[in-house]
Design goal:
With about 190 residues, the protein is an alpha/beta fold. The protein is built from five helices and nine strands.
């Protein structure tokens, strides 16, 4: 909305990523869908020691119970130390994400925050995480990759696909089968 009325936003992904700072620990870019339109948004996570008996879990823009499940998977299946720590999760720009495809981006942001290591620059994440810590395919992977490539992203981390999908020119795809592979690709937990 402007002084002259409603204005078209030609590329909403640029709007959500416009103020993004690269190389900050705890941030990941999620290649999502809003309806049928691809949209890239930043997921921000902060994991900090807690002085409370029950650590805080504050979430803005994502499902709180999904975060609880994902933190349990990371701790029980992958050894990521999250017990006794406060977790703050935010979807930048005030967007509300409904799809489970954000699981992998949230996991990457949490791992990055715990290790205090920024995620690789110009990388997007998407994929669903199962209770076994395996990664599951999500709909319209090619559409998500095309949007990321269009905005200059060079790498995508996503679940291994059953079909032989080809990544668009300009972006490479790292295909993973589980969260442990993600942790290893990010340098492990120290």
């Amino acid at each position: 909305m402007s002084e002259t009325g409603l204005q078209q936003v030609p590329n909403p992904s640029e709007l959500f990523l416009g103020d993004r700072q690269n190389r900050v620990a705890g941030t990941a870019v999620f290649a999502g869908l809003e309806g049928s339109r691809p949209l890239l948004v930043e997921i921000e996570a902060l994991v900090a020691p807690s002085t409370l008996a029950t650590p805080r879990r504050n979430v803005v823009g994502w499902d709180t119970s999904r975060l609880a499940m994902l933190t349990a998977i990371l701790e029980a299946r992958c050894g990521v130390p999250l017990s006794g720590r406060d977790i703050f999760l935010n979807v930048a720009g005030g967007l509300r994400i409904q799809e489970t495809a954000a699981d992998l981006a949230v996991a990457a942001a949490l791992i990055s925050s715990v290790t205090a290591k920024p995620l690789p620059a110009r990388t997007v994440f998407f994929g669903e995480v199962a209770l076994s810590a395996e990664l599951r395919q999500v709909a319209q992977a090619e559409t998500r990759l095309k949007e990321a490539a269009k905005l200059g992203f060079e790498q995508a981390i996503l679940p291994r696909l059953g079909n032989k999908m080809k990544a668009p020119q300009g972006i490479s795809a790292s295909l993973l089968t589980n969260l442990s592979e993600l942790i290893d690709s990010l340098g492990g937990i120290t």
